[in-house]
Write a structure and sequence with these properties.
This protein is of the alpha+beta class. The protein is built from four helices and six strands, in the order H-E-E-H-E-H-E-H-E-E. The model has no long low-confidence stretch (mean pLDDT about 90).
C-alpha cells in the first residue's frame, strides 16, 4: 500500500508511539515531520521522519540501533507499507542516521582506495539493505570501480571491485 495520506499516517504513528513508549516506560520525546526538508542525501527522501530525543535515546541506539530499527519496522507493518515503500517512513535518534550514512560514505571511500591500490575486491561486513544501498550509491559514479551485493539474508554484504572484474559468486 503506498503512503497516500501522510498526515493520517503521521497521526497513526503518533498514537502507536504513545502507546508503545508509555507501556515500555521510556523517557523519550519524538517529533514527527511530514515531508521533512531534504538534506544532502539524494538517496534518502523520507515522506515521514520520526526523530527521537531524551534520556533513553541511547537505549534506541544500542546494538546497532536495533530497537530504533524495530520501532521503525513495527510502524511500517502497521501502515501496511510494501517493502519498496519502507524508505518513506524513517526513524532517527540523536542524528544517528546522518552519522551512520557519513560513516558508510567514508568506509566506501576507503574501500575504493584499497581496491584501486591493490586490485583486490573489498568485502564489507553484512549490513542492512538501506546501508548496502548507501554504499552502492556512494560509489555509483566511480569510473574504475563497481559494487555488487552478495550473500543471502542477514549475511548479505557489499563487495567493491574493479570495473573489469568478473561478478562475485557467493
Amino acid at each position: 500500500m503506498p503512503l497516500e495520506d501522510k498526515v493520517a499516517a503521521a497521526k497513526r504513528i503518533d498514537q502507536l508511539l504513545r502507546d508503545l513508549l508509555s507501556a515500555g516506560g521510556f523517557l523519550l520525546k519524538y517529533r514527527i515531520m511530514v515531508d521533512p526538508p531534504v538534506e544532502d542525501r539524494d538517496w534518502e527522501r523520507p515522506q515521514i521522519l520520526v526523530a527521537f530525543s531524551g534520556p533513553d535515546g541511547p537505549l534506541l541506539l544500542e546494538r546497532g540501533a536495533e530497537l530504533l530499527r524495530s520501532l521503525e519496522h513495527v510502524t511500517q507493518k502497521m501502515l501496511r507499507l510494501e517493502s519498496d515503500d519502507h524508505d518513506k517512513v524513517v526513524f532517527d535518534c540523536m542524528n544517528h542516521r546522518a552519522m551512520r550514512l557519513e560513516e558508510l560514505r567514508l568506509a566506501a571511500s576507503v574501500a575504493a582506495e584499497k581496491v584501486l591500490k591493490t586490485g583486490v575486491p573489498y568485502e564489507f561486513a553484512p549490513m542492512t539493505a538501506r546501508e548496502r544501498r548507501s554504499v552502492h550509491l556512494a560509489l555509483r559514479d566511480h569510473p574504475e570501480l563497481k559494487t555488487e551485493s552478495c550473500g543471502e539474508g542477514p549475511q548479505r554484504c557489499v563487495v567493491v571491485l574493479p570495473k573489469n572484474a568478473k561478478p562475485q559468486k557467493k
